[in-house]
Amino acid sequence: MDIQGKINQANGRLKAGKIPIRIGRSGDRLWLRATLPPKPGSTTPHRHQQRIYLGVPATAAGLKRAEAEARAIASALTLDKFDWADYGHAPRTATVSDAIAAFEQDYFSRRRRTAKSELTFRTDYQAIFRKLPHNRPLSPELLKQTALATEPDTKTRRRACMALGALAKFSGLDCDLSPLAGQYSPRRVQPRNLPPDTLIAEWRDRIQSPEWQWAYGAIATFGLRPHEVFLIEAIDGGICTLTGGKTGPRKVWALYPEWGDGWGLAQKNPPQCSGRDNGDFGHRVSQFFRRLDCPFRAYDLRHCWARRAIEFGLDISLAAAQLGHSVKIHADLYQAWIGDDVHQRAYRICLGNPNRPPAP
Fold first, then answer.
1. What pTM value is reported for the model?
2. What is the mean pLDDT of residues 329-340?
């Protein structure tokens, strides 16, 4: 029997025992649903249906624990001893530090703690939470002040409202920060001054370290995210195979296979760097570019690959897949940075195609 069948059986036993709590599943984790007292700080005065995320796996052993927890909660509710603090929720008078600790515990109770999920938490939440005064009581006013301290209509403001809003909701505070998020979108970001391909090749030849010269060449040739240079499985025939990264394994085709051949990229020679996660490895690459005093950034090499794909007439869906993101992101972010000169060259290539349809 699959795990859902076992969950149904457990819920049947709870129902037969007149225990008004049910077990559910989200992905590979289990949760409980019951009519519970309002969370600390909630504006809802009466009991209502809520979930408790247990963080236990959707396995036979996890289900056994979830069923036992359901019975324990039912007993606590009967004796009026149920306490949200037992399930990671800070009390109303919690300090910012206590609330963040409870939020983090709950966050990782619903997803595996991996290098990737920890990086996401640090980037999307912890970076914003650091701006809060940790020794003060958590309040809607404090959250709003922290959000307003960021620059309007920026990615930072949007991320701050998302993270602080999530902390408010988790802590049961009546604090809607969405009106402060602003109008940021990738399309509003000013286009980068991307280097021409001749300059990219020139700066590659200036690098003295063979390892960093190889890394630079791989990023430029295949449009990789900086950390992905450490996740290359093989480069063969102008094709780069990645074992993972921000968006998982994929293959990328060189738009200048001459670079791959001439720069000897098939002979893997990555720099010897250490780090906890993709963010650390990407930071190592950024540090190298700063030491090199290069007039452009590592990520600009990725954007140049996207520009090159337009020039070469590569279908947008193929370019997006090779860069490792959705077509929407590709259109919103990369194509918004394509200048008229690039469109003009692509137009000339289209007109120069001998197989193009003739005018009627």
1. 0.58
2. 71
